[in-house]
Amino acid sequence: MSKQIDLKALLESRMGKIEPAEGSSAAIDRAEMNIPKNLMFDAESTEFKPETKPVTASGARGLTVEEAKTFNDEMSRFIETVLVAGTDYGVIPHCNKPTLLKSGAEKILNYLGLIARTEIVNRVEDYKVGFFSYECKVFLIDYNGVVKGEGIGITNTRESKYAKSSGYAVQNTVLKMAKKRALVDAALNVGNLSARFTQDMEDLKDLNAEPDNSNTGSNGKNPEELKPKTAKPAAKEKPATKKQFTLLEKLMKESNSSEAAMNRYVQKNYGVDDYHKINSLMASELIEKFQAAKQQG
After folding, report:
1. Which domain holds residue 243?
2. In sequence order, which residues have a C-beta less than 8 Å from that of residue 257 and are 6 or more positions away?
3. Is there a single domain that holds both residue 130 and residue 250?
4. Local structure of 9: helix, strand or coil
5. pLDDT at res. 219
6. Which segments of the chain are extended strands (E)?
7. Residues 122, 235, 214, 227, CA torsion sign
8. Could you tell me if residue 21 is inside a domain?
9. 32, part of any domain
10. Distance separating alpha carbons of residues 280 and 185, to the nearest angstrom
11. Is the model's pTM score more than 0.70?
12. 3-state secondary structure of 63
């Protein structure tokens, strides 16, 4: 009669005698030391907490000259082959670099195999006076969960393009714009594309503007109807000063921008038919945009 064997007991006894292969413990320790430190989880909540200093497109180690050249060549070939002028990037007459738009940024991230995660890191929501401001940060994560880059974007309802609208009506639009700016900023950073594209000039053209009619109140009412009756109207802006006009026209001349082109721009973006009629805030913003384009050029 054959003897029955307790397989479970036999395996447990044998497993207890198995020793790790020579050098395996050291290999495990080395692997743990190489876990990316920019991908961290809270021990208690497992909340995703990327570091504020991300790993860039170059990776944790430096690229060789050949690798850097190959990366730049491939990015250039992708941009020239895939991106579409007027849809993925816009050409600004007085700026020598095109401006990257949202759709172009999304295509670049898809090409690099990166996923964008957006977080609102700062917000101001004053429903009493209708002022809203959002600061968003975008983290670019590869399929291994490693943060490869990040970008930041800020928008508020006192920007000139929203000045003629109720803050309640454009709250969601402002939030979307902050997210879009952060996304474009991240794409420029991770793709090493700052020398090829600009972001700050995108508002001069608004080729990628998205109409938003979804911002209604919880009871189906327009947010304007929820505005408190005691809210004071915004103070009227002062006219642009002679000093502002002098500087603005000097910048226009340096960038070869005609008066007709400027009139078309202010008509489209500010609802003013002649740039000589713009207020002080509009003039300041135009001057800042020209100076930014000049510095980047």
Report:
1. 236-297
2. 93, 94
3. no
4. helix
5. 44
6. 89-90, 99-100, 115-126, 131-141, 147-156
7. positive
8. no
9. no
10. 28
11. no
12. coil
